[in-house]
Amino acid sequence: MPQVIDGKVISACIKEELKERVAVLKETRGMSVCLAVIQVGKDPASTVYVGNKKKACAYIGIDSLSYELPVETTQEELMRLIEELNHKEEVNGILVQLPLPDHIDENAVIRSIDPKKDVDGFHPQNVGALCIGQPGFVSCTPAGIIELLKRSGIEIAGKECVIIGRSNIVGKPMALLLLRENGTVTVTHSRTRNLKEVTRRADILVAAVGRPKMITREYVKEGAVVIDVGIHRNEAGKLCGDVDYEDVAPVCGAITPVPGGVGPMTIAMLMYNCVEAGIAGKVPGTDRKGNCL
Ligand code: GUN
């Protein structure tokens, strides 16, 4: 059977490291870290995610400010709040939970966040920095996947890495991060021909398709590392990923489970970005280097 990559254990480890760093910053420099979390509307999944982010902040010792705005909030109102938070010195990170209601232009909102406080790593300036190997915030899910691989002793350099999905939040930054680690990277998508042939070349396969259990063993080379970004709930309330775990596990070399794989890493890396935002430029030698941990 494969190595099961345990995101719960690895994310707990990262959170302990961050808790210690935050405590030291408080004790030695009187510094605190603060994240502003904005949710517009009451999408139930977003409410759960936002709640988990605030809980993680409390655990690590990061202050959080919560803004729960009504669904009819206008784009101007939202952007005015962001502008205010951009100028608040005590706020180090700003997170606007996505998706936003249809009447709000998500890209315009992301652009209005000060890139130095963009702990999601969604601002074009941070995405551009990642693209040309300069310091900046990196999107949390792909950054978490790199940590999962590194902390599981999986070498990336020289490996064939295939990503299924080209979203701005996962697929594209994932490709850039794997490239930064000297992987040979292929990004596949809905128009890719002979998808199975391409994915079967992968030493490291990242599935971010958004379709439950789509990736069966025919897509996977024997011994490959399989990273499952998907999370879906069936009628019975049971969670599953984009990968058919039972079918793939016997043939692959390592695999992330759902739940307990990639999911917990996203929040751990958000916390990491918050701490980096808190110390950037304030503690000598601790500017953001563009490398994780
Ligand atoms: N919605 C789903 N994932 C994310 C995320 O990583 N950040 C934000 N802000 N919204 C999301």
Quick summary:
With 293 residues, the chain is α/β, with parallel strands linked by helices. The chain has ten helices and eleven strands. The relative contact order is 0.17.
Describe this protein's structure.
Helices cover 40% and strands 15% of the residues. Strand 2, helix 2 and strand 3 (63-69) form a beta-alpha-beta unit. The chain is α/β, with parallel strands linked by helices and 293 residues long. Strands 1-11-8-7-5-6 form a six-stranded parallel sheet. The protein has a three-stranded parallel sheet with strand order 3-2-4, sandwiched between helices. It folds into two domains: 30-120, Rossmann fold; 140-262, Rossmann fold. The two termini are 30 Å apart. The structure holds guanine (GUN). Guanine is lined by residues 95-98, 120, 140, 266. Guanine (GUN) is lined by residues 95-98, 120, 140, 266.
DSSP strand count? 11
- Rg estimate, integer Å: 19 Å
Name given to the CATH architecture of the largest domain: 3-Layer(aba) Sandwich
Strand content: 15-25%
CATH class of the largest domain: Alpha Beta
Order of helices and strands: EHEHEHEHHHEHEHEEEEHEH
List the domain count as a whole number. Answer: 2
| Cα separation of the termini | 30 Å
Uncertain parts = 289-293
Oligomer: single chain
Q: Quote the average pLDDT.
A: 96
The hetero compounds bound to this protein are: guanine
Biggest sheet record: 6 strands, parallel
Outline, from the CA principal axes?
globular
Q: Structural class of the secondary structure composition?
A: alpha/beta
What is the name of the CATH superfamily of the largest domain?
Answer: NAD(P)-binding Rossmann-like Domain
Strand order of the largest sheet: 1-11-8-7-5-6
Instruction: Please estimate the helix content.
Output: 25-40%
Question: How many separate helices?
Answer: 10
**CATH topology title of the largest domain:** Rossmann fold
